[in-house]
Amino acid sequence: MAEQDWIIDNDWDDQDRRQYERYSTEFYLSVYEKEKSLPLGQVVDISLGGLQLVSSEPIPVNQQMHLWMDVSMESGRHEKIVFEAVTVWSGQNEDDDDDDSYNTGLQFINLSAEALDSLQGVIDDLSA
Q1: CA distances in angstroms from 103 to 14, 73, 95, 115, listed in the order given
Q2: Which of 60, 63, 56 is nearest to 40 (CA)?
Q3: What are the structural domains, with CATH classification, of the chain?
């Protein structure tokens, strides 16, 4: 895959980027592709608008995906959240010394009421 196929310039201003408050995950929330049940990556931070994922492979931009997240938190919350998302940006992880991981921004789309409630519960636990 050519670099230009998965990386884009992000011309969003700070207001567009920060519509939702983000919460860092001090533990790993794993995200999987729904149809294949293959691990896609680990959540770095999350908001009601989307999440940042770290993965071992680049994820193409503008790709709509059906995913699920395995939630297992110190508070005792254990659940599976099914959702759709679209990739809005992707790039090589600059914090990784080996340059073998990628960060990707996913925006939630078509969230069900159940998924939204579950995400709010995760965020409530993270902000406590």
Answers
A1: 19, 22, 10, 23
A2: 56
A3: 3-127 (2.40.10.220)
